[in-house]
């Protein structure tokens, strides 16, 4: 006897490639937003330290936020933090060198604390001259990279970020957007590239940790399917 009952149709699941792409795209946006707000928060705190010591000076009419920072500084730092934090894990995948050194959140938090300490030292600690301060901050920044990163891609990106950020700062000061007290490296302070280098390493570590968490979540979903 032939079966006349039609089998119930089961909706097809999206293939693993489509689901992984969708999940990756959403997590990329979430990571970018998280990195943006981390960058905004660090910019407000660190810029407050610089202003309190009169290291950076902004015109009175642009000091509008409660942290006495120009309104455009936090969004710019947040955007840069998002780009850097997304770029580091992307570069690791492109080079085929996954970063596995000290991949836990406690290490990331210590890296952030050291970066804040380096910035605090640039604003609070008095040195005999700017050369001594710059050499000390350079040693601390390289020590931060060696302690929490130790990857060739991390060092290369840190140097590139320091160069580009210093160049942008030179242009902003040249055009009168803000100024540094006692500039000794053209229009800025000679230790500024060290701060940018340490900041790039720090945001790169945060971005790598967020990317690792994303990979872990995707792997767990794939295992359940």
From TrEMBL:
Q: Which gene encodes it?
A: INSIG2
A molecular function annotated in GO for this UniProt entry is:
lipid binding
Membrane topology, as annotated: Multi-pass membrane protein
Q: Which domain of life is it from?
A: Eukaryota
Q: Which GO terms describe its cellular component?
A: SREBP-SCAP-Insig complex
Q: Which InterPro entries match?
A: INSIG_fam (IPR025929)
Similarity comment: Belongs to the INSIG family.
Protein source organism: Phasianus colchicus
List residues traversing the bilayer. Answer: 28-49, 69-88, 131-148, 155-174, 186-206
Example GO biological process: SREBP signaling pathway
Which locations, inside or outside the cell, does it occupy? Endoplasmic reticulum membrane
Q: Which Pfam families match?
A: INSIG
Task performed by this protein: Mediates feedback control of cholesterol synthesis.
Write out the entry's keywords from A to Z: Cholesterol metabolism, Endoplasmic reticulum, Lipid metabolism, Lipid-binding, Membrane, Steroid metabolism, Sterol metabolism, Transmembrane, Transmembrane helix
Name of the protein this chain belongs to: Insulin-induced gene protein
